[in-house]
Amino acid sequence: MLRSFLLPAAFALCSPAGAQVLTFADVKAQNGVQLDARALRELMPGAKVVSRTQAGSTRHWENRPDGTFSATTDGRGVSGGRNAYASAQGTWRVTDEGRLCVKIPWPSAQDDWCRYIFKLGDRYYGVGSFAAEAPASEFEFSK
Hints:
alpha+beta; Lipocalin; 8-stranded antiparallel beta barrel
């Protein structure tokens, strides 16, 4: 009886679906600071990027100064939690409004998005809009 209760509870605690989704309201409540276009244009060229999706995938790439990169993903967000590795050539740019825009034509789907980037401690979060409930995706940028 105890085993039949513990196993489902363990899966709920470990699954991405059981994880709390951070929102724009959460980032603002924790005093996240928005990076403007100037700051993004300084940070992005040559940046090594780790991008974590709300669905659970982790993607890696390094921004080349010409606006291109080679990306890899573990694909967990589209494979039910199992690794489904893929790679693709992508592009990045910073808009005058201060959004980071990325396009990656993965073999099974395409990423094509723009995000406002906020710094919160040593992490960065990207949101597609300033709506309180807008999901915030986690990023790491390093040189």
